């Protein structure tokens, strides 16, 4: 891990800050003496300890409303004078088989997890570019490592977030702005209890029963505090990585999925290479 750079008081903009990982990130930043603009759909100043004083600004925010996002970022910059770390943490989960999703349900999943993060990035970038510094942290998920039954649309939203973020990292780098994608494993955040469900199709009953059996065997998630500690190390680094896995389970799964993909690619190498042979553009001379 790179040697941390000299840490001074910094200003954060955190979405989804009222609970779960977002609240843990907010508290960790405040406890170290930083300033935080804490945004969430429902949030209030009295939700936090009064001792944080004017280092904490709470902002009611629906990240799916682009105009509202830009206004909230402008309010935060007007209040604190600058932004240093932006954490796109707001997210939702919809559970259901792909065939079961209505158009409205599918779009709603993307509105928060993809477009919400995109609007925040668009809103903060002019400020970060102007000061030639800043660090955007995209909170992705284990769901971006691969698709799994009943969480396909959630994975789709996180895959899309990561593809957008990889491009953005390269676009923002020339302006001195860093970007990191964080892929957490399981944390007790309330994500599962607040997720929406599709109307179950009877054809998927056996698969659902098998999944419920697997879940009944139990999964032990971690305290959000541990993710917050990792995030502090990430933003303190002078050379933060593009990607950071959080948790042993997600770490092992990432390597397992990567190995299986590489084995499949290698097994089909001849077919892959035979499908490409450069030729002049159709209709070109020569």
Q: Can you walk me through this structure?
A:
By secondary structure, the protein is an alpha/beta fold. It has one domain: NAD(P)-binding Rossmann-like Domain (Rossmann fold, 3-Layer(aba) Sandwich), CATH 3.40.50. Helix content is 45%, strand content 14%. The protein is built from eight helices and nine strands. The chain has helices at residues 20-31, 66-80, 103-131, 152-172, 205-216, 224-236, 248-267, 269-274; strands at 11-15, 35-40, 56-60, 85-88, 94-95, 135-139, 178-184, 196-197, 243-246. The strands form two sheets. A seven-stranded parallel sheet has the order 3-2-1-4-6-7-9, sandwiched between helices. Strands 5-8 form a two-stranded parallel ribbon. Strand 1 (11-15), helix 1 and strand 2 (35-40) form a beta-alpha-beta unit. Helix 1 crosses helix 6 (224-236), helix 2 (66-80) packs parallel to helix 3 and helix 3 packs parallel to helix 4. The protein is globular and about 60 Å long. It starts with 10 loop residues before the first strand and ends in a 12-residue tail after the last helix. The mean pLDDT is 92.
């Amino acid at each position: 891990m790179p040697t941390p750079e000299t840490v001074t008081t910094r200003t954060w903009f955190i979405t989804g800050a009222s609970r779960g990982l977002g609240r843990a990130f907010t508290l960790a930043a405040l406890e170290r003496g930083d300033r935080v603009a804490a945004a969430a759909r429902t949030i209030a100043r009295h939700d936090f300890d009064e001792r944080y004083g004017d280092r904490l600004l709470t902002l009611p925010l629906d990240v799916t409303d682009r105009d509202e996002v830009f206004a909230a970022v402008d309010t935060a910059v007007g209040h604190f004078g600058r932004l240093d770390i932006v954490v796109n943490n707001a997210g939702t989960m919809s559970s259901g088989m792909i065939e079961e999703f209505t158009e409205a349900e599918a779009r709603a999943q993307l509105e928060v997890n993809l477009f919400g993060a995109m609007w925040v990035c668009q809103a903060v970038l002019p400020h970060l570019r102007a000061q030639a510094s800043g660090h955007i942290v995209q909170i992705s998920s284990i769901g971006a490592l691969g698709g799994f039954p009943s969480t396909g649309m959630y994975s789709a939203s996180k895959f899309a977030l990561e593809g957008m973020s990889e491009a953005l990292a390269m676009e923002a780098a020339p302006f001195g702005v860093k970007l990191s994608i964080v892929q957490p494993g399981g944390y007790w955040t309330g994500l599962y209890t607040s997720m929406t469900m599709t109307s179950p199709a009877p054809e998927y009953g056996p698969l659902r029963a098998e999944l419920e059996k697997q879940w009944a065997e139990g999964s032990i998630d971690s305290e959000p505090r541990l993710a917050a500690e990792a995030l502090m190390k990430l933003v303190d680094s002078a050379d933060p990585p593009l990607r950071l896995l959080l948790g042993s389970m997600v770490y092992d799964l990432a390597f397992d999925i990567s190995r299986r993909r590489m084995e499949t690619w290698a097994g089909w190498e001849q077919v892959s290479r035979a499908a490409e042979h450069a030729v002049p553009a159709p209709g070109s001379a020569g």
